User: Fold this.
Amino acid sequence: MNAHLRTALALAGQSVPVLPLRAGKVPFGNCHTCRDSMCGGRPNMKTPGPCTCPAPCHAWAAATTDPDIITGPAWAPVWQQAAAVAYHPGGIGLTVVDLDHADAVAWARRTLPVTRTVRTTRGEHWIYQGAMSSVNAVRDGVDIKSTMVYARWLGPGTGTMTTLPDAVRALIVKKPVLARPVIVPAPTGGGECRHRTPAYLERGIAMAEQRITAATSGIHATVYRTFLAVLSAHGRCGCLTDAHAARLFAAAQTKGETARHCTDAWSNARTALGM
Assistant:
């Protein structure tokens, strides 16, 4: 039994789903349907759900804790060629922040909460307790590996594992596209605009952010109705700025809305109000 197989069985015994990697840190295709980086015709395994092929198959979908599969006839010859062992972080509720070079490591040390750390060839893996979506290149040299991806097993690491922080979750939220400034005629009558009271406007924006964040269904409709309400209450005096719109866009994108939908909803709300 070679070292990689021993490692895989030891991890599986601790309920860590594992798979073999070939040279180049890429997985094996374990059936005729799945070659290299394909699985049932689905490139890079980005389709949710387990592999539907008849045998344990490709990439993260192949990760298993079953020793009969790990040592079975489909994988037995594979271990003789394996260059490394990988695991599915999201499968055990973990997130790996993959820091690919020294500058990325320095950024993490300045920015992220300390957690368990594993040294890699060029940088470090920072491992947090909690799963999230996986996204590559969230910034230079930084990948997020959790659900629907695999990570190399490079040892248990050092340090105490920290609960997945908001600072890591925020890395995958796209920066909001700033809406065009709301340019409308100032109110007539010579009186002071009530919306120029900072507390009044701030309360309105904060309530709108809370309404979007608290939504559990009908997100599209909630975002549009909230934008409509904000523009109706605060959009006709010229006090609403790009910074206010950006806060609302950010709240919507945190709930899964795209920047394009935010822009469309904002534009539609303005049109509905005759702005």
Observations:
- The CA atoms of residues 122 and 239 lie 49 Å apart.
- The first strand starts at residue 18 and ends at 22.
